[in-house]
Amino acid sequence: KVTLADLSRDALAVAKKNITRNHLSAKVSCIQADALGQPSKFLGKFDMIVSNPPYITTDEMARLPRSVAAYEPHLALHGGDDGLVFYRAIAENYRKALKPGGYLCFEFGMGQGDDVCRILEENGYTILERSRDYNNRERAVIAQFGRKED
């Protein structure tokens, strides 16, 4: 079972259409949630949380190309002054939504890998793997909560 969460009602509406179109209603559900807040107990516990949160810094937002700034919702792009506000909130607040030994996976912006991994480690996660994209740029991490080093 998969639960999709987003703050944007518009994004959730698109997701719901895709779920129906692909006959996944029995396996996939959608909820509105704020990644910056505390998770609702209603959510339950997850084996894994995967997130591609907003990670563009305030300075970068001011310099976005028109092809991005005019068509992408700023809500989906702006990650605070340093681009890391969502990583801090999710790593801290959503631990309680993970089952013991659960996983947290993040995509992040170029050059943010060390900072994102530091945030995860400061919140009790063990980094399992850092991954690169097809252009050989580091862009993702998977970490496990509560795992003790061997």
Topology:
Blueprint (H helix, E strand, L loop, with lengths): L1 E5 L2 H13 L6 E5 L13 E6 L6 H5 L3 H4 L15 H9 L4 E10 L5 H10 L2 E8 L5 E8 L5
Parallel strand pairs: 1-2, 3-4
Antiparallel strand pairs: 4-6, 5-6
**Class from helix and strand fractions:** alpha/beta
Helix residue percentage = 25-40%
Mean pLDDT: 94
Beta-strand level of the residues, as a percent range? 25-35%
**Oligomeric status of the shown chains?**
single chain
How many beta-strand runs?
6
Largest sheet: 4 strands, mixed
SSE pattern = EHEEHHHEHEE
The number of distinct helices, counting runs of at least 4 residues, comes to: 5
Strand order of the largest sheet: 3-4-6-5
* Uncertain residue segments: none
Account of the 3D structure:
It is a single chain. The protein has helices at residues 9-21, 58-62, 66-69, 85-93, 113-122, and strands at 2-6, 28-32, 46-51, 98-107, 125-132, 138-145. The protein has 150 residues and is α/β, with parallel strands linked by helices. It is globular, with a radius of gyration of 16 Å.
Short recap of the structure:
With 150 residues, the chain is an alpha/beta fold. It has five helices and six strands, in the order βαββαααβαββ. The strands form two sheets. It has a four-stranded mixed sheet with strand order 3-4-6-5, covered by helices on one side. Strands 1-2 form a two-stranded parallel ribbon.
Which characteristics define this entry?
single chain, 150 residues, alpha/beta, four-stranded mixed β-sheet, globular
